[in-house]
């Protein structure tokens, strides 16, 4: 049974035509964040595999690009805020689409959880700089709560305000990163051999293949979330034109930005110092900024705040829209599908995502007693669900243009690209997740694997339960319906 036209008309819809092409591109770059990809990941990546961070970022980009192209193909013909859930619902089966929706929801919520944890680390740096009485774990907790309150207030005002805020924050953080890199290069140019290309040499890898794949897992985290722009399709202007372009332009731009600037950071500090900072639960970027800018390190801390706020906004935006999409389809509780105000904001969904971030963030700090370890734990976990989502999107690309829109099928973009994407993402799950993390200490390694598999099993059981006991919910059109065969 399919929804009737009257049912479709009565379905709550997000506010349309509020996000333009630059706003969509800013959404892609904002959730990946030019500054935070460097600030948060440079230290852990070097600690995992040695002073070859540029190689890690470039390898992660190569793994990501086929999936980016699959997203672009599908959005060009079937833009949907349900993204992978809608496409797999239409091309494979409603049950598969439901599973994809639950996995996507988990992926975006986990991406959001990581952000206030990292915000807490920089808030602690700020308290240290101010010599404030709030130190240690208390500063982490306060930072997490403050950031969550700010982002909730912004996201509740609607997509248009959220995107404008993200664009302004992006310009600030990119300018500061480039200024710091320029300073480091200026200093290094005055030292014999200070500027070189050794960070691009594979022989500099210190921890072997397992260490490199552990670093790739962190590199993939930096790209995770780029597909948030797909969930904005319903609120975008001309989504068939602008969403695909924003995907490709945003991902390539931020990848090249990372590779260039992380090369400079790798030249700035000896490996043993980076490992020391990481072991102490510190962000390596703060002491580097102190070494090259003195008290100007406060500027880096400030842009960490702006960059993290941009990521948090984009993550909450994406997660809440997926929750809204599933609830509108009666696959999650009805309150999540309610829209509020002139901006048609899914208020309950937004607040649920932020509260999930607060509760799980505080719980991980209480259990692990280390801000960096808490951040790395959730980072590793979200990559598992991101890779599953990306695999599903590539499968949908392969099937959609064979079964739904065969007249638009292209051998490269709809066969070669998705097959390569599936292979890369499955290998990522095997090599980085099951091999690398399973062999790592239980604290931030094996425990992640166990928890993710358990959660995925629960989602599979939930989908089977709906298929058996609520089958009528799967007998309708896809969540936030795909307009099959329409390329207009």
**What value does the Rg take, in angstroms?**
22 Å
CATH superfamily: Amino acid/polyamine transporter I
Q: Beta fraction of the residues?
A: under 5%
CATH architecture: Up-down Bundle
Q: CATH class, anyone?
A: Mainly Alpha
Extract low-pLDDT stretches. 1-9, 482-488
Let me know the largest β-sheet: none
Number of β-strand runs: 0
Compute the number of structural domains: 1
Mean pLDDT: 84
Distance between the termini: 26 Å
What share of the residues lie within helices? over 70%
Element pattern in H and E: HHHHHHHHHHHHHHHHHH
The quaternary state of the protein chains shown equals: single chain
Q: Helix/strand-derived class?
A: mainly alpha
Shape: globular
* CATH topology (fold) name: Amino acid/polyamine transporter I
Number of helices: 18
Explain what the structure shows.
By secondary structure, this protein is mostly helical. It has a single domain, classed as Amino acid/polyamine transporter I. 75% of the residues lie in helices and 0% in strands. It has helices spanning 5-10, 21-32, 34-49, 53-77, 84-91, 94-130, 136-155, 159-189, 208-223, 228-231, 239-268, 271-279, 285-293, 297-328, 347-368, 371-404, 412-437, 442-469. The chain is globular and about 65 Å long. The model is unreliable at 1-9 and 482-488 (pLDDT under 50).
């Amino acid at each position: 049974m399919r929804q009737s036209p009257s049912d479709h008309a009565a379905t709550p819809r997000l506010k349309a035509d509020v996000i333009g092409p630059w706003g969509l591109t800013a959404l892609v770059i904002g959730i990946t964040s030019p500054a935070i990809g460097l600030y948060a990941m440079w230290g852990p990546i070097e600690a995992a595999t040695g002073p070859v961070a540029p190689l890690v970022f470039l390898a992660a980009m190569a793994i990501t690009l086929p999936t980016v192209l699959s997203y672009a193909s599908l959005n060009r013909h079937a833009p949907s805020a349900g993204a992978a859930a809608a496409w797999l619902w239409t091309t494979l089966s409603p049950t598969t689409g439901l599973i994809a929706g639950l996995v996507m929801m988990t992926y975006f919520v986990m991406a959001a959880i990581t952000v206030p944890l990292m915000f807490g680390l920089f808030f602690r740096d700020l308290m240290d700089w101010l010599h404030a009485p709030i130190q240690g774990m208390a500063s982490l907790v306060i930072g997490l709560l403050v950031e969550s309150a700010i982002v909730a207030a912004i996201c509740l005002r609607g997509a248009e305000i959220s995107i404008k805020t993200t664009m302004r924050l992006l310009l600030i953080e990119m300018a500061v990163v480039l200024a710091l890199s320029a300073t480091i290069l200026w200093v290094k140019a005055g030292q014999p051999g200070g500027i070189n290309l050794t960070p691009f040499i594979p022989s500099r890898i210190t921890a072997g293949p397992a260490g490199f794949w552990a670093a790739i897992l962190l590199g993939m985290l930096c790209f995770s979330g780029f597909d948030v722009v797909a969930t904005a399709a319903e609120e975008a202007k001309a989504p068939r034109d602008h969403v695909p372009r924003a995907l490709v332009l945003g991902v390539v731009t931020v990848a090249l930005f990372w590779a260039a600037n992380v090369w400079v950071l790798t030249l700035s500090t000896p490996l043993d110092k980076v490992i020391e900072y990481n072991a102490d639960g510190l962000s390596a970027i703060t002491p580097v900024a102190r070494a090259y800018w003195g008290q100007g390190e406060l500027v880096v801390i400030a842009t960490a705040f702006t960059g993290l706020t941009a990521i948090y906004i984009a993550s909450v935006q994406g997660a809440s829209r997926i929750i809204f999409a599933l609830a509108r389809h009666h696959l999650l509780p009805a309150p999540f599908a309610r829209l509020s105000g002139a901006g048609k904001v899914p208020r309950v969904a937004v607040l649920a995502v932020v509260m999930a971030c607060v509760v799980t963030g505080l719980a991980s700090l209480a259990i692990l007693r280390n801000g960096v370890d808490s951040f790395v734990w959730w980072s590793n976990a979200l990559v598992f669900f991101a890779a599953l989502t990306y695999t599903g999107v590539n499968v949908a690309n392969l099937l959609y243009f064979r079964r739904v829109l065969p007249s638009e099928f292209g051998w490269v973009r709809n066969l070669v690209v998705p097959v390569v994407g599936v292979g890369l993402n499955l290998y990522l799950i095997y090599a980085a997740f099951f091999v690398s993390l399973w062999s790592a200490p239980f604290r931030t390694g094996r425990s992640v694997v166990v928890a993710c598999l358990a959660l995925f099993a629960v989602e599979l059981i939930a989908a089977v339960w709906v298929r058996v006991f609520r089958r009528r919910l799967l007998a309708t059109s896809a969540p936030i319906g795909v307009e099959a065969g329409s390329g207009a």
